[in-house]
């Protein structure tokens, strides 16, 4: 059993096949792995718009959504983003950012710049409100 990265619904390994039957090639393998059928379609549509925008921040947000590296917390509208940074040739460190549609604790967000984390959180929050 897997848990949907957006709505936390449990879905089985057979569910990705149902996504293929319903949506064909529209949903990518990464979305099938991280999202339930209903969320996979919504995230796919959002990612398509973000990639087609030509904006680098939007494209980064689409990548974040595809990898499901932004996860919701127990507090509605608040998400966490896990970033991995290489500190030395053999060591890596994980950095967690607290993200809302209005703010982010990343370096860009701390300076009031619209970051890809906020864009992804806005999309997930919009989808959450619509559900």
Keywords summarizing the entry:
alpha+beta; two-stranded antiparallel sheet; 131 residues
Summarize the structure in words.
- By secondary structure, the protein is an alpha+beta fold.
- It has one domain (2-130).
- The chain contains 6 helices and 5 strands; from the N terminus they run E-E-H-H-H-H-E-E-E-H-H.
- The strands form 2 sheets. Strands 3-4-5 form a 3-stranded antiparallel beta sheet. A two-stranded antiparallel sheet has the order 1-2.
- A hairpin with a 5-residue loop joins strand 4 (79-86) and strand 5 (92-99).
- The longest helix is centred in the middle third of the chain and has 16 residues, at 37-52.
- The model has no long low-confidence stretch (mean pLDDT 82).
> What can be said about the biggest beta sheet?
3 strands, antiparallel
Classify the beta-strand content into a percent band. 15-25%
What low-confidence regions span 5 or more consecutive residues with pLDDT below 50?
none
Given helix and strand content, the structural type is alpha+beta
Fraction of residues in H or I helices: 40-55%
In DSSP terms, counting alpha (H) and pi (I) runs of 4 or more, how many helices? 6
Q: How many β strands by DSSP?
A: 5
H/E series? EEHHHHEEEHH
Specify the overall morphology.
globular
Major β-sheet strand ordering = 3-4-5
The Cα radius of gyration reads: 15 Å
Instruction: Please indicate the count of domains.
Output: 1
Average pLDDT score: 82
Report how far the terminal alpha carbons are from each other. 22 Å
């Amino acid at each position: 059993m897997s848990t949907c990265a957006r709505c936390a619904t449990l879905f089985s390994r057979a569910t990705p096949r149902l996504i293929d039957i319903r949506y064909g090639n529209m949903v990518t393998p990464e979305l099938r792995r991280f999202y339930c059928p209903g969320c996979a379609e919504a995230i796919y549509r959002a990612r398509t718009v973000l990639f087609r925008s030509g904006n680098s921040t939007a494209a980064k947000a689409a990548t974040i959504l595809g990898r499901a590296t932004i996860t919701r917390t127990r507090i509605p509208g608040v998400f966490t983003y896990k970033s991995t940074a290489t500190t030395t040739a053999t060591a890596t460190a994980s950095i967690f950012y607290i993200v809302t549609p209005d703010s982010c604790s990343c370096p860009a967000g701390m300076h009031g710049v619209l970051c890809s984390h906020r864009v992804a959180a806005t999309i997930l929050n919009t989808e959450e409100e619509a559900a």
